[in-house]
Amino acid sequence: MQNAGQLSRRQILAAAGFIGLATVTGCGSGEDGGDSKDLSKKRHGAMKNYRAGQQFKAAEPLSFSVLHNNNPVYPMKDGWLFWKELTKRTGVTLKPVDVPLADYEKKRSVLIGAGDAPFLIPKTYHPSEVAFVSSGAVLPVSDYVKLMPNFRDKVRKWRLEPELDSIRQSDGKYYLLPGLHEKVKSGYSLSFRTDVLDRHGLTPPTTWDEVYDVLKALKEEYPGKYPFSDRWSTNTPFPCGALFSYLGQAFGVRAGWTYDNISFDHKAQKYVFTGAQDAYRQLVEYLRRLVAEKLMDPESFSQTDDQAVQKLLAEKCFAMSANPQELVQNYRYNLEKQVEGAKMEMVPVPLGPAGPVVLGGSRLENGVMISSKALKSDSFVAMMQFVDWLWYSDEGQRLARWGVQGVTYTRSGRQYRPKPGISLMGSDPDAPKDMQKDYGFYNGVFAYGGSWELVSSMFGPDEEKFQAAMARREQLPVDPAHPLQSFEQEQATLWDTPLKDTVIQNTLRFVLGKRPLSQWDAYLAELKSKNMQQLVDLHNKAYERFRKENG
Amino acid sequence: MVKPSRSYRVFQGVNGVILTLVVLVTLYPFANILARSFSGERQIRAGEVTLLPKGFNLTTYRIVFRDSMFWRNYGNTVLYTVVATAVAMVLTTCYAYVLSKKHLKGRGVLVGIAVFTMFFTGGLIPNYILVTNLGLKNSVWAIALPNAISVFNLLVMKAFFESLPTELEEAAQIDGLSTYGVLLRIVLPLSKAVVATMVLFYSVSFWNSWFSAFLYMDRTDLMPVTVYLRNLIQGATGGGNAGAGTEQLSQVAANIQSVTIVLTALPILCVYPFVQRYFVSGVMLGAVKG
């Protein structure tokens, strides 16, 4: 009996606790953005006639809090020239809240959830802002871009409206100010040991058929080795994320890192299921052939990046996915120490059935969310002008990337150079100072997007060659906007994940030969049983609706 | 003394072999990290390093020793561990001692409150709001106070105190000691084993913890070394996983990681063997007396 008495007391306690909690959380969510449309009282420190291309200078000294993603490669310092120069030019002091890069997203969620977020929340990748939309904690920035002349100017000049539409929510607004690119920047492609190719009279391939031929020829020379081993398979739901991504592009489908269950079929003018497309099957067949003929290392799909690179350095393979940084700073740098006469080059993404194209939609980069609290501040207008200047004006972008002319860089025409004694991304390993570590420029929090002239000014010789080749390719049109309403979103998420898992698992099983390709139809049937059609219909419905409502 | 039977000796033998294997498997990562920390970068990259260092070098140790932020964070870890352990020990001892008294009214409720927190928590965001509104953010108290009482440790200690003969305390009271006097001069000196165990439990967990610091600290110079290490490793291996925007993450040399891991684990490794004696008896006491 005594026991029962104790239990009930505990139950009362528990109940009291829950009620208490419910009250606390209830209060928290009751907050809302406040009345907003009238901005006339929020012009403290703002410029009267702020125009595109004009230097922003706050009428009075202001300061705004900003979430700062602290990169271990260039840990934040209070003494960075960037902070000082920014204050000098704009009259604004940024107060960074420093978050380690490793768990940036987690802390961001907590801060926003607790209503304690800084005004400016940069380094946000679409679609992670969607999670905060319904709580009202982040500002629907599309309502306020009228305060941002540089942003609007770039959107108009570079015809970015379709891309912006793709990040709109079902209310027709967007909640993230994305980084804007004038041109698509391609990041990843295949790299080859060109000295080995030369030795055997082979030339770097330009199409995927030639890739096959080259690997085949290498296999004949080195029967005991897999000529191609790949990486970027861990920490990502889709193994070999880079390879699938650029190989998919050659077939005109999204795969790997860019994989999305639904994609737009521009011929049929409707959404279709990506993993069930015929082009997707061709992509799988191609990779199956590489693995079946032992041209590609089957461990590619499971090994860590370190293991992969070790194979490359130990000459167990001769080709690997790369981006220009990895090529120069990792592969080439380490190969030089290890293998005499080793040369490594990255080829422009080989061409496939889709012809010389690049996938659209990648002209937006990560961007800035604005906390709804900022709207209550009387210097809201000045803040938006400041954001516009720093992230979207040519001058602001130049400052964030290159710093101060004559101090950190020199320029003649389109040619930018770091000042002697300053190293930029390993350009001069012996230099006493580093552009990122010691001055705070080219910091991923502030420097991204921009005109092609500015973006290409940072390229090393390898990247320049690569990007020049890629820039000549045609950009495929962007998928039209099809924002889901919140209840649809929940339903879609329930369908999305199992479908995606099925696609990824079976892609790997097909490629590794654990499931014969003759079972493709059975695989399609499995997708159907997992609500593939319903998901596609849902998105098509949303697409039609958005088209009707927004023209 | 009964002579052990043959089957028992076989069992002992098999046991010994299996446990030795387990020990080797457990030690291997340590040995490997240690070897890597002294090895040349080329040998690590080529995957040649297993148990012994290859291409011996101390350059990385020199580099890490020169990084002022590493030492600042290391100092923070020491400070947080010492303060938090001290606070935790005082509070846990007092609470456990009170709970061990059978004549205490409402003892069940007090135990219930503690046990309740084992199964239910307010959740991340309410906790964050609480700590922030109490003004604890960016101070050692944000780490020390919310984690001051570990219910598991509390129950072990309570069980230990209950096992002490009440006659001892009664005798002390007759000799004129107050309640605190009994605790400080009679009970605690007899509880060295459990106190040592608890100090070890708490200090290891505070030494290793990173999450509350990560949550409640807004500046790098307030972070403990675990966050520094985590950021370093994540920064080195996370490159490219999101596809875009990670281009700036250049590879942090493989042996910087190893060196940092070694330096972080070293103090705990040094302390462990000396406290282990108490550790075993302390845990056993709690277990048997449950």
From TrEMBL, chain A:
CDD domains: PBP2_AlgQ_like_4 (cd13583). Gene3D superfamilies: Periplasmic binding protein-like II. SUPFAM superfamilies: Periplasmic binding protein-like II (SSF53850). Keywords: Cell membrane, Lipoprotein, Membrane, Palmitate, Signal. It holds the Pfam family SBP_bac_1. InterPro entries: Bact_solute-bd_prot1, SBP. This is Putative aldouronate transport system substrate-binding protein. It comes from Streptomyces paradoxus.
